[in-house]
Amino acid sequence: MADLSALRESMVAQVRERRISDATAHALLTVPRHLFLPEVPPETAYRNEAIVTRRDAGGLPTSSSSQPTIMAMMLDQLDVRPGQRVLEVGAGTGYNAALLAHLVGPRGEVVSVDIDPEVARQAGDHLKAAGFPEVTVACADGFEGFAERAPYDRVIATVGVWDLAPAWLDQMAPGGRLVVPLDLRGVQRSVAMEREGERWTSRSVVACGFMRMRGPSAGPELVRILDRDSELMIFLPEARDVGDVLAVLDGPSMEISTGTSAEEAQLLDGLVLWLAVREPRCCSLAEARSGRLPCLSEIPGFAITFGVVDRDGLCVLGTSGTDGRLTVHAYGPGGGRLTADLLVHLREWDAAGRPGSDGLRIDARRGPLPADGRPVVPAGAQVIGKRHTHLVLSWT
Question: Which of 1, 114, 205, 270 has a beta carbon 3.0–4.6 Å from 120's, enabling a disulfide?
Fold first, then answer.
């Protein structure tokens, strides 16, 4: 019989390496994660990693229990206080709603909504079994919020969102805070935002990765499975013609040294974000096995890299040696040209001081981009247009 307390304490000890608050750590120690993951052994449930719980007909994950570390970081971003009313968009297993219920206490209220009726049903069952029957779980499109229990002091999305929903902002109480895994042209950052005049402004930005919102409010991102045997996939910020990527990958290639090095965290948090918001041809690729790709980073079961793709070629980032020397791997007749463009981005990122999420400010302004051109923004800022808002990114 597994020692559940010891397993939970071990998980929380790992999460505490990211300097989470005592309140969040206590919630993780108190709420039994294994009751929200009855299909896996407790030893698996208390690993500090995401656990996929549902997949679609094509095999792509559609629901999961997120990694406890990122859950804890987002809860700290949310800054939940006892007695508050919280809306959660994306019910998952119900575990995060239970953590929220612990944090708001008996005088608070938690409402969790999910577009998938089976996910909502199971989350409700898990919450009752774990001793949190007071959490309201509803099957609804989270992009519309949940007006009948509004206003909310806090709103958190536990699913990747492409745009900020007007309903979330309208259903927020004065002084409220919103935390969402926000898409920034194919990469995500967990952004804590508060109202500042007529716009919403970030208070903290943290790297993250979540399954995307589904339904009518989903974004234009495209995930394409290139090879089912190796689970090779390409991710694009929006659908476009990139030719036969698999054929290009299986053809001749060359490796180019960039003459620079960087730690993995610096590359993922900095260079990848720089590429995403500045390079319209950016992409990411992941594979479970086969070794076709250089590996820039790993998540459980997958090797991941990032780069630039066009109809006639592809180039992606890798590392070489023990000192993190950065390389570019070029494929196809256009690979050399794309590599030259990627190296320009690398030099500009390096010259700018290698900015990442630290110091990043995101302003969300109501309405899409003006039809008459670029809005007035600070020098050097990047603008990303959405359906209901436009984002202005700047670094201090």
Answer: 114
